[in-house]
Amino acid sequence: MYKSQGRRLHIGLRTVKTGLAVALALLAASLRDAAMPIFAAIGAIGAMSRTLYDSRRACLTQFVGILLGCTLAYGFVTIFPFYRDPAAIGLGLIAMIAICNYFQWDYAISLSCIIFVSICLNSEDVLWYAANRFMDTATGLIIAYAVNALIKPYNNRGAILRELDNLLAAVPPLLRERVAAERYPDPAPLTERLHQLDDELTIYEQQTFPHKKERRRDCAYLRGCFQLATRILQELEALCVMDVPGVPSPETLQRLSEYGIDVPGRGQTSADQHSQVMNYHLHNLLDAYAYLKEMRKETALPDKR
Questions:
Q1: For residue 128, is it within any domain?
Q2: In 3D, which of 4, 41, 37, 2 has the Cα closest to residue 19?
Q3: d(CA 273, CA 277)
């Protein structure tokens, strides 16, 4: 009978870093007697992403959004005395969105529009509001990015190695089903594992860590593992679209047996076209699988990055 494990309270490292960043941002804002400390906290929360790459993008989005919103709002309020009119604000937003689209600043449209409207509706001293909004938000962004970078930055190398292990473990059963049982296995789970591996590798490649030269070599090495895994999937898919199964050669049978795949009733060489095609794809698949296993042994070395 299924027994529910219930809910479990989990406080992860990013949760702790977010609380610390907000506390430090509010402390820094209070030390300089900030006019709007809430925006320091908002900046810290927005910049505390899972990875440093995401944190940099969040910081860039907020910096550009604040600068653009404040600058255009200042010009709008200065030029048009009827800036509080709803129709005028709507026209101003249209102009701001058009400018963002022209310069391909689409990532900053939402924040810049919010700041534009808030300045038009709520501020008597536009320059004072804009300067303080920028200073307070920048305080939160800088502190959050520093906390995220200095306190155990996100490193998903272990997740990549686990994905490689799962992929390696999934290949022999699929081969056994296709070659020994002469059935057509579904390669979709293997495809999904490859997508997950590619996503994790992309995250890993975007990180900024010390020893960048070593990190670049490691990224290239792990990407090579991914290419071998892709080749394995391609060869398996080729085997799965064969209408007529061929006869594995003695050499192929020997290599399959090394991975615990025994093919009953086989052992005689066949020169027909189907057998040649099957042995060709099996040869390529087993080569890629063997290379990947060897590379995985090397990636198992302690990670000093």
A1: yes
A2: 41
A3: 6
DSSP for 87-143 reads HHHHHHHHHHHHHHHHTT-GGGHHHHHHHHHHHHHH-SSHHHHHHHHHHHHHHHHHH
DSSP helix/strand/coil, 54: helix
Out of 150, 172, 189, a domain closes at 150
Q: CA 167 to CA 179: how far, in whole Å?
A: 19
Beta strands in the chain (DSSP E): none
Tokens representing residue 245 in the block = 């199964």
* Domain, as residue range, for 257: 157-299
Q: Residue 304 above 60 pLDDT?
A: no
**Lowest model confidence (mean pLDDT) among 2-16, 56-70, 164-178:** 2-16
Q: In terms of domains, do 105 and 140 share one?
A: yes
Q: What is the DSSP letter of 178?
A: I
Q: Does 70 fall in a domain?
A: yes
Do both 66 and 179 map to the same domain?
A: no
117-120 long-range contacts, Cβ below 8 Å, gap at least 24? 117/89, 117/93, 119/69, 119/70, 119/73, 119/74, 119/77, 120/73, 120/76, 120/77, 120/83, 120/84, 120/89, 120/92
Rounded to two decimals, the pTM is 0.68
For the chain, how many structural domains are there in total? 2
Last residue in a domain, options 117, 150, 183: 150
Split at pLDDT 50, 70, 90, the class of 224 is very high
| Whole-angstrom distance, CA of residue 39 vs CA of residue 115 | 12
User: CA-CA distance, 284 to 174, in Å (whole number)?
Assistant: 15
Identity of the amino acid at 49 = S
